[in-house]
Write a structure and sequence with these properties.
Elements: E1 2-8, E2 11-16, E3 19-24, E4 45-47, H1 55-74, H2 81-97, H3 105-115, H4 117-134, H5 142-159
Antiparallel strand pairs: 1-2, 2-3, 3-4
Helix pairs in contact: 1-2, 1-4, 2-5, 3-4, 3-5, 4-5
Length: 160
């Protein structure tokens, strides 16, 4: 896996045989130059966009997911790599929907607001970051769809 673009000390866009991916890890980009081999043992997370044609939008989705994963840890949720992928996919679909809310989003939003407000706040934070960074319109109820992924992860860990 070769470094294509260094985003910061902790994030690199890498070239693989499957295409470009974003890899994250503490210090993974420190003193690395484009074209150099990436230290695989330093990779903590990686993301590959499936639906977005604009790679910059995808990188922003990955950074928003990283923020949501950190916030979920503070609530005691132990996020998995699969959660990162599901959250990235949820954000990609929200961008592609161009402000059109999923028909189930208002119902899910209301349920989470009443029963799981802290998890909903993480979804709201992620949606706000996405909206502000990409300057795109999103339906606030979509925060419930994002938070539902976190709630599912929490339930899987407690009951699985």
């Amino acid at each position: 896996m070769l470094a294509k673009k260094i985003l910061n000390n902790n994030a690199i866009i890498a070239a693989t045989s499957l295409g470009e991916v974003v890899v994250l890890g503490c210090g993974i980009g420190y003193q690395v130059k484009g074209g150099e081999e990436i230290a695989i043992q330093k990779i903590e997370k990686w993301y590959s966009g499936q639906y977005l044609n604009n790679f910059e939008d995808y990188v922003i989705c990955c950074m928003v997911v990283d923020q949501m994963m950190s916030a979920s840890k503070r609530l005691g949720i132990r996020p998995s790599q699969m959660l990162a992928g599901r959250l990235t996919l949820a954000l990609e679909l929200i961008i592609l929907s161009k402000g059109q809310a999923n028909p189930l989003a208002p119902v899910i939003y209301q349920h989470l607001q009443e029963n799981h407000p802290q998890i909903l706040q993480i979804g709201q934070m992620g949606l706000r970051l996405l909206s502000d960074t990409l300057e795109c319109d999103v339906a606030i109820q979509e925060a419930g769809m994002i938070a539902l992924e976190l709630l599912n992860e929490d339930g899987d860990k407690r009951h699985g």
